[in-house]
Amino acid sequence: MKLATPIRNMALAALALVAGGCFIAVGDVDDVVRSVTYPPDFRYLERSEIRGAMWELAVHARTLHEAVHRHDEGRRAAVSSALKGMEAAADRLPSDGRPTNHPLLNLHLPRLLDEVRAARRAVEAEPPSYLAAATVAGACLPCHTRTY
Ligand code: HEC
Known about the structure:
The protein is mainly α. It has helices at 5-18, 29-36, 47-68, 75-91, 103-124, 131-135. It folds into 2 domains: 5-36, no CATH class; 47-140. The chain is built from 6 helices and no strands. Bound molecules: heme C.
C-alpha cells in the first residue's frame, strides 16, 4: 500500500514508539496507521493481545480447577495463587470502561475481575470458603458459550 508521506511519517514515528515490547510486528504499517487514527482514549486491542491474555487466563483456570479439588494442606495457597494468576491475566486487558474495538470485553471483563477478586478474598478469609473459587469458571460464560 502506498501511503501519503505525512501519514507514512506518522506511522513510522508510531512504529518507533511502540517498537519496545508490543504486539505490532515491525513493518506492519497498516496496523500502525489503524492504531494512530483512533481518538486518544480509545484503546485498540490487537487480537493477539486478547488471545495471549486469554490463554494465560485459561491456564490459570485449569490450575484453579485442580487446586480446588486438592485434599492436602497446600490447597489454600494453590487456589489463591491460581486466582492471582487469573487476575493478573485479566488485568492485562482494559477493564476501566475506556472504549475498545471489543465491546464484549468492555461489557463483561469488569465482572470477571470482580468474581475472581471476590473468590480470592473468600479463600483468604478465616475460615476460608472455596465455593466462589470453584464456580469462578462460570465467569467465562458471558463471552464464551463453553469454557476452555
Ligand atoms: C469479557 C469477555 C470474556 C471473558 C469473560 C472471557 N473471555 Fe476468553 N475470549 C474473549 C475474546 C474477545 C476472545 C478472542 C476471540 C478472538 O478474537 O479470537 C477470547 C478468546 C479466548 C480463548 C482463545 C484464544 C485463542 O487463541 O483463540 C481462550 C482459551 C479463552 N478465551 C479462555 C477464557 C477463559 C478460560 C475464561 C474464563 C476464565 C474466559 N476466556 C473469559 C472474551 C472473554
